[in-house]
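Good morning C.,

I know you're traveling, so I'll keep this short. The sequence:
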Amino acid sequence: MTERRYPLKQTPVRESVAAAVDELDHIEIDTSQIRSVAEEWADEKFELPSWRAPVFPDESAAGTSVEDVIDFLFVGNSINFAFRNFETGEKFVAEYDGIEWAGAFGMWACLKRAYDNDVPILDGGYLSQLSRPEVEDLFDPADGRQIPMLDYRLRILNAVGDRLVTDYDGHFHWFLTEAGNQLFDDGNGIVERLVREFPSFDDTHYIETETGSQSVHFYKRAQLAPGMTYGRFEGRDGVTVVDPEAFTVFADYNLPNILRHTDILVYDDYLSQLVDSETLLEASSREEVEIRIATVAAADQLMQELNDRRETPVYGPHMDYKLFSVRDQVDTPVHKTKTTDY
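The tokens, ready to paste straight into the viewer:
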């Protein structure tokens, strides 16, 4: 077997996806197309998003610390899901500093607006006591359309706040200090501790096989929180991730659609009809879980093919950003699932 130049780290996510990928009923991964895309992209620049839009705090600004930014990214990712109204197709929109921001950036805009107004949204004590009227005010929309799944967000923020107060003096930066700088570390890494200690981050699902039910871990938001921190700091200010090769892509709505557009993922007629007709797929259904398994597995294969051709490595956040950056070239519908996982 050829030695890999930049091998991807084996993690509970990769191991569970690899064990399940042969069980796919409705999707094929075209390995020849993966090689073709890898050849096409081998010399392209793969960037990390820096997450420095105006809707994120700036540690260089007066009164804002690196710890504030860490707290902001982790609190925000605890509720970073479901920004589209699946009945109307419209995305949540919020205003910040005279500009309207849609989707996830609308959520970040609301948090930044509160932060600027000295609302203690980064403090676990405040989050643990948030009421529904307060969370409605926090996510005040630009157009009167309330953010989807508001009650879920409230419950998650309350639970996150409780845990932060109990174990981390009210702040996520103390969690990160204690967890260290590895994503996966035999159960003690950042991602592993997030999913264990903050249950809303535990993005685990099951697929039925001939031998029984098999668990599959995606940990989308649990990877995205340190992933955004990694992109923001890249080892600066004492903030680092020493095993970035452990990241997978952050399996959501857009990535499988882009991989399908590139012909890397091939849906059968049954799944194609469901997705293309914009039928709502039940959360944790076989169809939805298969889409996410195929997304992570195919993206891993594409990363490894690229890394065998490049002098600089491509890891999960690079690949995620690359795929996401071409989403405007794709006009087929994304799959629809109402979930708190992404």
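Safe travels,
E.
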